[in-house]
Every structure is written in structure tokens, then in C-alpha cells.
């Protein structure tokens, strides 16, 4: 994967050069003939405006390129003193065949609308272009983008918008408001960046695109997103979608299965305050397709004042993420990492997860959360679903799957009503008649402390189910798991209050939890070192509690019925540290107590068994060259999507490159930045603990 070459993206100047500011006029650019094709060459702001006026009215294909940087202000750091007032969303750049910025930058544009309104209805290519130090937007316009309002076909590649203010009254994106396709021309958007902008809008807002249903790959955002529509409610069920890359991503079910969000990174903070429902994610607010290689390091803070707040470190609401006829293994979301804190507050209910807030038959293969997760409901009858990876899961498809998922952040829920809280998942629910025989959660771990808080006992029927892995499990099978965090409560006693080292409550006959352990402390009213409340566990095997860490009963409550046999609970075991930190215990878990060949799922790195994929990671934020005048950009060819993430595959000192240095488990991890930038020291959870 190669990202946009920084050699043409960032023109870093130690001293801002002085230019003749735009005088408000427009002239036609000159053209040259190359290989039988007329190409217009733009050298001044006046020619750029003249080109736009020409392409708006032509019926012949036009090709354009920039010959140099275009500066609208008095220098490269100033806005134009004369705003370009377009006041017309009906102009389409239909016949623009190509626009090649050749790596140059347009500085200081100030306009009520972006450079382009609607491009791509007849294909075309826009590439190698940068927009910087601009102000694009209007309080009366309902759709906006930093470069264009709508991209509806053709190719948009190697584009960056940076250090701009971008705003509207509705759908807004750092690069484009809409990204779609038409029936005649495919639509591609890749290698696009939104850097250090301030983006605001409502309805659908994204760091790169507000609303999309066409493929988007290799996208980066470090812009701050602020959405406040708390005073302009349009209805009780109105939903606001906000994402670090895309606000709302909803390809049609009939679209090509390749329509995904692929290789996307968000470093921008997201702040949302809304009077309606909100779906907010570090990458995308709502998605109906998979996300492949998505990383978020931005802080997410949400206040949903009116109804549901659905929030995730990667995606807020995820619907079925693969096309019919394909399986989760080839169409599910993969390689998802969240490093930012996630907090949602609502006067109603919240569904919050370190990776996804609410998943409906979603599939996830490889998802790790390192940020703290918090859900707060101030409602009298609100419901909190809070999980380190998954807030709430409801499965209606046999392909649904969560495979190799883990959490290292702390998980906190605060509500005076119902709590479903887990180190990995708040609640796992399935249509029992359809997916009872499927193992949904495979290879899951938690290191974070799990805490539930309430100031009152609530209604006598209020539910309180909290676990190191899952709070509430209904019809879902789990295999291979461990919890190393403490599970605790700060809450008055209530009738239904279950705290478990692995699960708060496991319900219905086909629930299974097999092969794993708890090495954390558990407190509460009805406590189980492994599972607090059970209703006929179907063949549970080999779950272990380290009694030297906390010696409590393995379970607290069993709902017995005619088919329930206590012998089914023989899979729950009390053990001790020495054995659980031995190679024999690893072998038992890998061979299913000698019944199969070594599964090579578990290993040991000094103490308790862990999964092979349980790997230390840190996130080194990308350096913005504009913040350090005179410093060269990152070397050409280095991929900003990959470079910020370091993975310690070996547990010994190992120098990955001159940017990232990783040390053994349990020690500090040092991240060295190039070109004399600030040296940062990180803990293994990815949090900065020292700066010098």
C-alpha cells in the first residue's frame, strides 16, 4: 500500500512568501496542445476562477493543470480579503475530463462553496491537488465539502485539504460532502487526506466525506469535528451520523462486494451534542459494509440529549457487513484498532463500544481496543450497553462472527436503571432459532477494569449484569477467553445484580462458554468468579478461576428447570496461580484436555496463558509539517496509514525503523519521531506518560 507522496503534498516554508492577492476578477487561462489534446494551464487566482466559470457552462471536455501554487491571500498563511461568492449549487462541472494539480497547493480561498460543486457525472480525474488555509462554507447551505460538494463518478486521488475551516448547516466532509456513483461511471476515491481542519455541520458529518456509498480507500483525517445540533431538532427520530472518515456509509446490498472502507486512519477528535439519536464512530458513524484496516486515535465525546447514543471507537452502528452469498470470512471487517477514549452521555439509553457501539449481524476478524470506554445515562429508565470492544450485538445471520478481539482500556457504565457491561461485550443476543449452534465470539480477552456505577437502586426490576468478558449472553456461544481486569460495582443493592469474572449472566440452554480463565477480582451482591448467573449452560468446558487472586464461588445463581443438570457445571473449576501459569495449563487449553491436536491458539509469555495475537501496540501520531516550518516532510514512499502503528511481534528489544522502537511486555515503549521532533514515551496501553 502506498500513500500520497508527501513531496508534493506539503510545501513547507520557513517564511511565508508575499504574493499579489486576488483582486476579485476572473480571466480565461491559456492553453497548450499536447498529443492532440488541449490543456488549460492555470497560474493565478484569476485564471482559476475563470476556469470554473468556463467549465460550468461548456459542453466540451476540458483538461486542466496547475503550473504553480495559487495564492488568494497576501501570503500563503492568509485568507483572501475578497470572498468568492458563488451562491449556486446547480453548477455541475460535468465536462471536466481531468484536473491535475501536479502537487501544487491552492492557498487562502474564502468562499461560500468549494472549488467544485458536482464532478464525475461523466467520469473524469482530479488528482495531485492540495487546498490549504481556506474557509469554505455557509450557515445557509445544507451540504459542503472542503474541495467539492459532491463526487459522483470518476477518480479522485492524491488530494489533501489542510488547515481550513469547513462548515454548513447539514452534510459536511473535509474533502467532499457526498461520494457516490452513477450508472454509467464507476466512482473511486483514494489517497485523500483531511489535515488539521475544523469541520462542523449536522445530519451527516465526516472528516473526509459526509455521506458515501461508493468505495473509499487510503483515507486519513486529523481534523477536529464539532457537531452541535442540540437546538435545531427536526423530529423525535432524527439521527445524526458522525465519523472521523465518513459520517454515513451505506452502499446498497446489490452493490459490488468490494465497496468497503479500506486502509483508513483517524487522528481527529470528535465532539457531538445532539437533541436526537446519534451514531458516532472514530472511522464511520453508520456503516452497512465492512471496514478493512481501520485505526482511530481520536478522542470521541458524545452527548445525545434526546434519545439513543450509539458510539464506537471505530463504528457507531454496524449493520450486516457483507453481501448476500458471501461469508463473514471474506467480507467481514478486519484489522480494527482503537486508541482513543470513547464516552457517550444520553438522557435516554447508550450503546458504547471500544470498536462498535451496536452491531446487527456484523462480522469482525481482528479488533483491538486500547482506549477507555464510558457510557452514561441520566434517564430514569435508560439502558446502558457498554463493552470494551462491542457495546451491543444482535445476530440474525449465521455468518456473524467476532474473532480474535480484545480490550486493554478501562470500561465504565453509569446509570440509575439497567446495566449490561463487559470487558469485551456489554450484551450478546441472537435469534435463538437461527444461530443457536454457531460459536459467535472466538478468542476474546480483556485486561481493563470493568466498573458499573449507580446512585440509586432503581426500579426493583432493573437489571445489573457485568462481566470481565460479557455482561449478558443470550443464545451466543463463546470459545477461548480470558479476563485479567477487575470487575467491580459502586451501586446500592438491587434484586437483579450479577457480577462475574467472565460473564454476569449466561442465559438459555444453548449458551456455551468453553476454554478460558479469570485472573481478576470480582465484587458485587451476587458474585461468580466465572459466571454469576446461569440458566443451563450447555456443555461448558474448562473455565478456571485463580482463587489465589480472589477466592469466591464460581457461580452465584442457577435457574434450574427440568432439563437442567448440575453435572453440566463440572466445566467450572477453581485453580491456583502456579498451575495457571504453567506450560501444562497452556497445553490443556490448546489440546482441549488432550482430545485434539495442538490448536496453537494459546502461548505463555512469563505468566498466564495468552493468545498469540495478543500483541503490544502503540500509536505514534503523525507529525504535521506545517507545525514545524523548515522541517522536511516524511520520506517519500512511507505510508502514513501504516507508519503510525507499531506491533511488537517479538518480546525483546526490537528496532522497527527510525520512527518506532518497541520493548518487551510490561516495560515502557519508546516512540522516536524523525527530524528532531518531540520524543514521546508511551505505556503499553498506548497512552502518553512522559514527554520531553
Explain what the structure shows.
The protein is mostly beta strands. Among the domains are: 308-602, Pectate Lyase C-like (3 Solenoid); 615-692, no CATH class. Helix content is 5%, strand content 45%. The chain is elongated, with a radius of gyration of 27 Å. The chain starts with 5 loop residues before the first helix and ends with a strand.
Total strands: 67
The largest sheet, given as strand count, sense and whether it forms a barrel, is: 19 strands, mixed
Please bin the fraction of helical residues.
under 10%
Structural class: mainly beta
Rg, nearest Å: 27 Å
User: Could you report the average pLDDT, rounded to the nearest whole number?
Assistant: 81
Specify the overall morphology.
Answer: elongated
The level-1 CATH class of the domain at 308-602: Mainly Beta
Distance between the termini: 33 Å
Low-confidence stretches: 1-15, 561-567, 625-692
CATH T-level topology of the domain at 308-602: Pectate Lyase C-like
Name the CATH architecture of the domain at 308-602. 3 Solenoid
Counted by DSSP, the helix tally is: 6
- Note the beta-strand portion: over 45%
Layout: helices, strands, pairs:
Elements: H1 6-9, E1 30-34, E2 37-42, H2 45-57, E3 62-66, E4 70-71, E5 92-93, E6 96-107, E7 110-111, E8 116-119, E9 125-132, E10 135-137, E11 143-145, E12 148-151, E13 154-162, E14 165-167, E15 171-173, E16 176-179, E17 187-195, E18 198-200, E19 204-206, E20 209-212, E21 216-221, E22 224-229, E23 239-243, E24 246-249, E25 261-266, E26 270-274, E27 277-281, E28 284-287, E29 291-296, E30 300-304, E31 309-312, E32 315-318, H3 328-331, E33 333-338, E34 342-346, E35 350-353, E36 356-360, E37 363-369, E38 373-377, E39 383-387, E40 390-395, E41 401-407, E42 411-414, E43 418-422, E44 425-430, H4 432-435, E45 439-446, E46 450-453, E47 463-467, E48 470-474, E49 477-483, E50 487-490, E51 496-500, E52 503-507, E53 512-518, E54 526-528, E55 531-534, E56 543-546, E57 557-558, E58 572-575, H5 577-580, H6 583-591, E59 602-604, E60 609-611, E61 617-619, E62 645-647, E63 654-655, E64 661-662, E65 669-671, E66 680-682, E67 688-691
Parallel strand pairs: 2-3, 3-6, 4-6, 5-8, 6-9, 7-10, 8-12, 9-13, 10-14, 11-15, 12-16, 13-17, 14-18, 15-19, 16-20, 17-21, 18-22, 19-23, 20-24, 21-25, 22-26, 23-27, 24-28, 25-29, 26-30, 27-31, 28-32, 29-33, 30-34, 31-35, 32-36, 33-37, 34-38, 35-39, 36-40, 37-41, 38-42, 39-43, 40-44, 41-45, ...
Antiparallel strand pairs: 1-2, 59-60, 61-62, 63-64, 65-66, 66-67
Amino acid at each position: 500500500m502506498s500513500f500520497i507522496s508527501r513531496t508534493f503534498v506539503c510545501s513547507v516554508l520557513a517564511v511565508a512568501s508575499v504574493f499579489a492577492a486576488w483582486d476579485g476578477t476572473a480571466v480565461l487561462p491559456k492553453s497548450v496542445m499536447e498529443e492532440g489534446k488541449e490543456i488549460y494551464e492555470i497560474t493565478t487566482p484569476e485564471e482559476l476562477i475563470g476556469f470554473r466559470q468556463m467549465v460550468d457552462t461548456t459542453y466540451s471536455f476540458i483538461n486542466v493543470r496547475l503550473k504553480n501554487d495559487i495564492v488568494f491571500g497576501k501570503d500563503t498563511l492568509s485568507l483572501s480579503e475578497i470572498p468568492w461568492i458563488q451562491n449556486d449549487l446547480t453548477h455541475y462541472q460535468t465536462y471536466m475530463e481531468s484536473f491535475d494539480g501536479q502537487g501544487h497547493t491552492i492557498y487562502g480561498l474564502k468562499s461560500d462553496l468549494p472549488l467544485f460543486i458536482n464532478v464525475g457525472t461523466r467520469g473524469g480525474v482530479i488528482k495531485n491537488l492540495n487546498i490549504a488555509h481556506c474557509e469554505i462554507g455557509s450557515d445557509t447551505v445544507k451540504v459542503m465539502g472542503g474541495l467539492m460538494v459532491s463526487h459522483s463518478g470518476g477518480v479522485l486521488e492524491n488530494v489533501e485539504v489542510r488547515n481550513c475551516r469547513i462548515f454548513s448547516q447539514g452534510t459536511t466532509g473535509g474533502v467532499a460532502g457526498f461520494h457516490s456513483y452513477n450508472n454509467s461511471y464507476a466512482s473511486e476515491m483514494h489517497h485523500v487526506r483531511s489535515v488539521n481542519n475544523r469541520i462542523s455541520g449536522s445530519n451527516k458529518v465526516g472528516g473526509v466525506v459526509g455521506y458515501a456509498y461508493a468505495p473509499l480507500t487510503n483515507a486519513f483525517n486529523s481534523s477536529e469535528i464539532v457537531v452541535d445540533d442540540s437546538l435545531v431538532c427536526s423530529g423525535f427520530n432524527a439521527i445524526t451520523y458522525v465519523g472521523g472518515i465518513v459520517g454515513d456509509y451505506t452502499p446498497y446490498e446489490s452493490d459490488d462486494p468490494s465497496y468497503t472502507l479500506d486502509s483508513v486512519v483517524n487522528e481527529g477528535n470528535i465532539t457531538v451534542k445532539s437533541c436526537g439519536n446519534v451514531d458516532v464512530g472514530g472511522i464511520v458513524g453508520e456503516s452497512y459494509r465492512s471496514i478493512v484496516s481501520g485505526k482511530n486515535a481520536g478522542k470521541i465525546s458524545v452527548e445525545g440529549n434526546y434519545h439513543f447514543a450509539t458510539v464506537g471507537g471505530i463504528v457507531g452502528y454496524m449493520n450486516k457487513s457483507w453481501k448476500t452469498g458471501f461469508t463473514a470470512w471474506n467480507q467481514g471487517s478486519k484489522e480494527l484498532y482503537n486508541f482513543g477514549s470513547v464516552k457517550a452521555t444520553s438522557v435516554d439509553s447508550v450503546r458504547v463500544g471500544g470498536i462498535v457501539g451496536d452491531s446487527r449481524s456484523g462480522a469482525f476478524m481482528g479488533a483491538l481496543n486500547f482506549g477507555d470506554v464510558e457510557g452514561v445515562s441520566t434517564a430514569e429508565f435508560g439502558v446502558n450497553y457498554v463493552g470494551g470492544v462491542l457495546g451491543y450485538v444482535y445476530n440474525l445471520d449465521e455468518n456473524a462472527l467476532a474473532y480474535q478481539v480484545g480490550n486493554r482500556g478501562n470500561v465504565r457504565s453509569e446509570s440509575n436503571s439497567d446495566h449490561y457491561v463487559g470487558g469485551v461485550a456489554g450484551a450478546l443476543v441472537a435469534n435463538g432459532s437461527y444461530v443457536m449452534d454457531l460459536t459467535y465470539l472466538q478468542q476474546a480477552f480483556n485486561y481493563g477494569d470493568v466498573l458499573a456505577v449507580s446512585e440509586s437502586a432503581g426500579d426493583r426490576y432493573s437489571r445489573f449484569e457485568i462481566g470481565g468478558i460479557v455482561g449478558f449472553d443470550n443464545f451466543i456461544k463463546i470459545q477461548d477467553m480470558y479476563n485479567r481486569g477487575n470487575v467491580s460495582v459502586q451501586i446500592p443493592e438491587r434484586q437483579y445484580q450479577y457480577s462475574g469474572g467472565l460473564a454476569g449472566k449466561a442465559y438459555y440452554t444453548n449458551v456455551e462458554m468453553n476454554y478460558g480463565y479469570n485472573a481478576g477480582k470480582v465484587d458485587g451482591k451476587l458474585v461468580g468468579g466465572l459466571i454469576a448467573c446461569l440458566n443451563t449452560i450447555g456443555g461448558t468446558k474448562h473455565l478456571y478461576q485463580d482463587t489465589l487472586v480472589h477466592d469466591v464461588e464460581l457461580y452465584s445463581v442457577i435457574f434450574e428447570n427440568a432439563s437442567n443438570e448440575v453435572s453440566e457445571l463440572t466445566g467450572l473449576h477453581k485453580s491456583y496461580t502456579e498451575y495457571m501459569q504453567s506450560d501444562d495449563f497452556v497445553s490443556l487449553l490448546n489440546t482441549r484436555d488432550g482430545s485434539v491436536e495442538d490448536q496453537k491458539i494459546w502461548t505463555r509469555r512469563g505468566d498466564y496463558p495468552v493468545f498469540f495475537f495478543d500483541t503490544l501496540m502503540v500509536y505514534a501520531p503523525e507529525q504535521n509539517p506545517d507545525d514545524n516550518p523548515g522541517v522536511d516532510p516524511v520520506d517519500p514512499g512511507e505510508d502514513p496509514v501504516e507508519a503510525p502503528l507499531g506491533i511488537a511481534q517479538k518480546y525483546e528489544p526490537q528496532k522497527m525503523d527510525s520512527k518506532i522502537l518497541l520493548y518487551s511486555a510490561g516495560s515502557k515503549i519508546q516512540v522516536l519521531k524523525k527530524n528532531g521532533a518531540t520524543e514521546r514515551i508511551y505505556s503499553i496501553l498506548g497512552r502518553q506518560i512522559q514527554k520531553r
